[in-house]
Amino acid sequence: MNLKKLLALAVAVLAAGAVCSAQTTNSQMIENGGTGEYKAVAIGDASLPTHMIYRPQNLKAYVQENGKIPVLLYANGACANNSLEMSRLLTEVASHGYFVIAIGPYQDMPDDAFYAQWRGVVRGSYPETKVNAIMGNGERLTPYTDAERAAMAAEREAARQAATRNNRNNRNRQAQPAPQQQFRTYARQLLEALDWITDQNGNDESEYYHLIDLEKVAAMGQSCGGAQVLAVAHDPRIKTCLIFNSGMGDMEMSGASKKSLANLHTPMLYLNGGKVDQAYNNANGDWGRIADDIPVVKISTLDGHHGTYYEKNAGAFAVVARKWLNWQLKGQVGDSALFMNDEYEKTFYPEWTFDRKNW
């Protein structure tokens, strides 16, 4: 091989190495970085463009004071390709000392966009068990009135009729291709994120070199994302799973089914919004099928399928998430009271229902 080719090969190798190292391209602080001791940032990384990262802003300071940081893998509700829905919860968890990798590319998540989404979501599916719903910006939400629902139905019907007329007028024209469906994510992306951070932890040119505790990895998913977690929960690197407003029951979704429950090997947390949550029966179905050697806790609230993610710092659902992770990944036994102590549960969460087995 001549000198020119050797130089070209060397340049290519160096370029490939640069691409493999973490490269922060975007960054934002959501809701003042959370309530934890380590203010969190949400970032995009050129070496992992399919995901968004939530982590302590001063990661090295966290590691110096506490040791390597645990990892949380997250899959979105509706198996969507963005983590906007849980951006406040993931920020809150990260601020308490976790490295969170969520499916979906980086995108700015300003308060106005976040609350605009949740305003419609909550009002449109306001659970009958909800006494009041107050967003993180202080806005009090109420269910849509009959008049509002009728107006929205009329608007949808007008749009349908307009589309029908437009199709009729264009029937002699060349058919237009159907619009592409929004990209649907897949369960394997959770493990791809874990593979990526494993590589970064071993790469001495990465900003994450030797900062990550790969023995402390959790996976969490909301709704359809919960199915994605169950689809990969067999991976031995995952030490605990958090299934929010989700469960398989008798259905199949995102590569998971009730057969997936036979592959569980870690402590499991199921958190749902109670009887008004459409995933409630599925969660109960899983409860009866999980093997007797798998420790599991199931909590049912009164918040419906969309939990408290729109509340300040994601409300009670964020508290449950970080306390479970503190207990399971960091060994903070005091936080186990929320899951194992009847008196604690009755005192602080009297309206919730708690079940546990195999402990």
Describe this structure in words.
It is a single chain. The chain is of the alpha/beta class. It has one domain (19-110, 182-357): Alpha/Beta hydrolase fold, catalytic domain (Rossmann fold, 3-Layer(aba) Sandwich), CATH 3.40.50.1820. The chain has helices spanning 3-20, 59-66, 87-95, 111-124, 146-169, 188-202, 224-232, 280-289, 315-330, 337-340, 342-348; strands spanning 24-28, 40-45, 51-56, 69-75, 99-103, 133-134, 140-141, 212-222, 240-244, 268-272, 296-300, 353-357. A ten-stranded mixed beta sheet has the order 1-2-3-5-4-8-9-10-11-12, sandwiched between helices. Strands 6-7 form a two-stranded antiparallel sheet. Strand 8, helix 7 and strand 9 form a beta-alpha-beta unit. 40% of the residues are buried. Mean pLDDT is 91; it is low at 3-19.
List keywords for this structure.
359 residues; alpha/beta; Rossmann fold; ten-stranded mixed beta sheet; two-stranded antiparallel ribbon; 11 helices; 37% helix; disordered N terminus
Brief digest:
The chain is of the alpha/beta class. Helix content is 37%, strand content 18%.
